[in-house]
Design goal:
The structure is a homodimer of 111-residue chains. The first copy, chain A, is α+β, with helices and mostly antiparallel strands and 111 residues long. Chain A is 30% helix and 39% strand. Chain A is built from two helices and four strands. Chain A has a four-stranded antiparallel β-sheet. In chain A, β2 and β3 form a beta hairpin. Chain A is globular, with a radius of gyration of 15 Å. At the A-B interface, β1, β2, β3 and β4 of A face β1, β2, β3 and β4 of B.
Chain lengths: 111, 111
Amino acid sequence: MSHFAPLPVPPYHAVIFTAQRREGDRGYAEMSAEMSALAERQPGYLGMESSRDGEGFGITVSYWADEAALLNWKAVAKHLMAQRLGRTRWYSHYRIRVARVERAYEGPEGR
Amino acid sequence: MSHFAPLPVPPYHAVIFTAQRREGDRGYAEMSAEMSALAERQPGYLGMESSRDGEGFGITVSYWADEAALLNWKAVAKHLMAQRLGRTRWYSHYRIRVARVERAYEGPEGR
C-alpha cells in the first residue's frame, strides 16, 4: 500500500501532472528523487501518488493542504526544474491541472 | 500525445482513481476497454488519462464537464464494476478522489 497517498478529510488540493518522458535518463532519476524529498519537506504536503507505464507516459498526483502550500511547492519545483531543464530535457510534453479535492473514499469494501 | 486528455477551460471535474492490481488478468482487460468505451459515450465526458507501472500500481484520471456528468458516470461505472467484482477481483486496494479542476496548463514552453 506504500504507493497510495493518505486520505485526509477534504477539502484539500491536488496537482495532477501528466507527462510523456523522452528516451534516456539524462539525470531524471536523480531529479525525481530530489523533487520527492523536497516535496515531503514542504509545509502542507499531504502525499504523492505516481505511476509510469512502459511507454514512458506517467501520472503524478501530489496533495496539498491548501492553496498557499501548493503555490509554495510550485515555486520550489519550478526553480528546481528550471535549473535542470536547460541541460536535460525529460519530457516531450506535460500537462498540469490544479484541482480542489471535494470528496474521497477507498475500497474494495470489506478489506 | 494520444495519452493526454484535452485541456478545456476550467472549471471542470476530475476523478482521480488510484489502484493496486492483483496478479492475473481475470477479465480486467475486457472490463477496462468496456469502461473506456462507456465513458466516452457519457454526456459531459471530457477525457481520460491512465498509467500503470510494472508493479501493477495505476492511476486513471477522468475529466467531466460538471457534477451531474460525474455522478451519472459513477452510477454507470459502479453498476458495471459491481456486476463483475463478484467473480473477478482486480484490485487489492483503490482510492477515489473527486476534485474540481481550477486551472490547467501545459509545457514545455516553446513546443
